[in-house]
């Protein structure tokens, strides 16, 4: 099964300059005869680099990545992409101001995403204030904005997993860590700006990502998906290691998450870009919770090996903030018109293992 996305535009019309773009390129994009620049913040990160691939595969661009590469292997996430520029986050608004007439959409994935980060001041500067500046820039310059929210905004799930964007509903949610709170704070601010009649981007969408897995997450170390962390154990014919349950309602390995293949996330974003009239806060999951044990077994099955699992105690530092169940309510996105089926866990994991993890080059 080739790794591809389902929203490719028609070919460029003969005789047009490379910087020109027919109005029918993708429904909902800006008129022709202007460069259609797509800016992806966090574009060298996990989901961001997959989005950059999706834009390139659809023939959209030029594509600009805003990110910090530092000294590790994060650069490999975008090494195969044809990019217009790679911009340091400190230069974001200088770059945007210089290219304001060319930018079609900003896809804002950049954030401190570690749920274990404890410096709340740092998180608010990166995840809230920077997002506010981007929102205001997009609104002032009539540029579309798609941004990453998170399922961490739901906290322990006591108020459910309904992506209701009303102020009343959002006020009921209780995130369990500074990361989830920062994302929730921005969601609430967006709702307040809409209710107050502030100027808005011509299209905006916040995506509450659930547990995403797939290629290019390797730089995330301990924050990598369990699928990625399980692979080397399966490859070495060792036991997978999962957290023991400290909740009597769940057996060891029976903790449930909504695991979503990163390609499905990209397809949703490509659909939003093709449907400029759709705005709102949307869950980005499958709508079907599966256990961590299911996920681990799927990795072994993809390698035609029998699964074995060992359990360790959940670290005390995160034990009281641990989610035992998440499951996206996908009805709002479906009602908005998104109809593509989500990838089944076993199919997504098999694709991940066979096309990426178990190859010489695991990068997309």
Outline the fold blueprint.
Blueprint: E1 37-41, H1 46-57, E2 63-66, E3 85-87, H2 92-98, E4 103-108, H3 120-141, E5 144-150, H4 167-170, H5 178-195, E6 204-209, E7 211-213, H6 226-235, E8 240-243, E9 256-257, E10 259-261, H7 262-273, E11 280-284, E12 290-291, H8 292-302, E13 309-312, H9 316-319, H10 331-336, H11 345-357
Parallel strand pairs: 1-2, 1-4, 2-3, 4-5, 5-6, 6-11, 7-10, 8-13
Antiparallel strand pairs: 9-12
Helix pairs in contact: 1-7, 3-5, 6-8, 8-11
Name the features:
seven-stranded parallel β-sheet; 11 helices; Rossmann fold; single chain; alpha/beta; 15% strand; two-stranded parallel sheet; 364 residues
Structural class: alpha/beta
Helix count equals 11
How is the main sheet built? 7 strands, parallel
Helix percent band: 25-40%
Strand order of the largest sheet: 3-2-1-4-5-6-11
Q: Using DSSP, what is the number of strands?
A: 13
Gap from first CA to last CA: 14 Å
Descriptive overview:
The relative contact order is 0.14. 33% of the residues lie in helices and 15% in strands. It has a domain at 37-214 and 261-287 and 327-343: Rossmann fold, CATH 3.40.50. It has helices at residues 46-57, 92-98, 120-141, 167-170, 178-195, 226-235, 262-273, 292-302, 316-319, 331-336, 345-357; strands at 37-41, 63-66, 85-87, 103-108, 144-150, 204-209, 211-213, 240-243, 256-257, 259-261, 280-284, 290-291, 309-312. It is an alpha/beta fold and 364 residues long. The chain is built from eleven helices and 13 strands.
């Amino acid at each position: 099964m080739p790794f591809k996305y389902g929203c490719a535009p028609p070919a460029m019309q003969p005789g047009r300059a490379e910087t020109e773009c027919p109005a029918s390129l993708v429904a909902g994009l800006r008129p022709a005869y202007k460069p259609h620049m797509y800016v992806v913040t966090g574009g060298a990160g996990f989901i961001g680099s997959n989005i950059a691939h999706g834009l390139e595969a659809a023939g959209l661009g030029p594509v600009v990545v805003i990110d910090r590469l530092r000294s590790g292997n994060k650069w490999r996430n975008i090494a195969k992409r044809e990019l217009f520029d790679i911009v340091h986050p400190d230069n974001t608004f200088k770059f945007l101001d210089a290219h304001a007439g060319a930018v079609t959409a900003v896809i804002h994935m950049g954030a401190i995403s570690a749920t274990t980060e404890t410096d709340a001041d740092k998180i608010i500067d990166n995840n809230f204030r920077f997002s506010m500046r981007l929102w205001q820039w997009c609104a002032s310059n009539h540029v579309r904005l798609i941004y990453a929210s998170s399922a961490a905004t739901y906290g322990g799930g006591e108020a459910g997993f309904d992506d209701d964007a009303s102020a009343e509903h959002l006020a009921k949610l209780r995130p369990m860590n500074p990361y989830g709170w920062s994302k929730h704070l921005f969601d609430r601010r967006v709702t307040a700006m809409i209710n107050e009649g502030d100027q808005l981007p011509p299209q905006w969408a916040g995506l509450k990502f659930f547990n995403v897995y797939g290629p290019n997450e390797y730089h995330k170390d301990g924050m990598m998906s369990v699928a990625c962390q399980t692979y080397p154990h399966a490859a070495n014919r060792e036991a997978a290691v999962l957290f023991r349950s400290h909740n009597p309602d769940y057996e060891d390995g029976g903790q449930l998450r909504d695991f979503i293949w990163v390609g499905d996330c990209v397809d949703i974003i490509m659909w939003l870009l093709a449907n400029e009239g759709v705005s709102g806060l949307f869950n980005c999951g499958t709508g079907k919770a599966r256990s961590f044990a299911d996920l681990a077994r799927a990795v072994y099955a993809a390698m035609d090996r029998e699964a074995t699992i060992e359990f360790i105690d959940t670290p005390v530092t995160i034990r009281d903030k641990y989610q035992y169940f998440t499951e996206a309510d996908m009805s709002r996105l479906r009602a908005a018109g998104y109809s593509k089926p989500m990838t089944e866990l076993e199919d997504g994991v098999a694709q991940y293992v066979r096309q990426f993890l178990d190859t010489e080059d695991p990068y997309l």
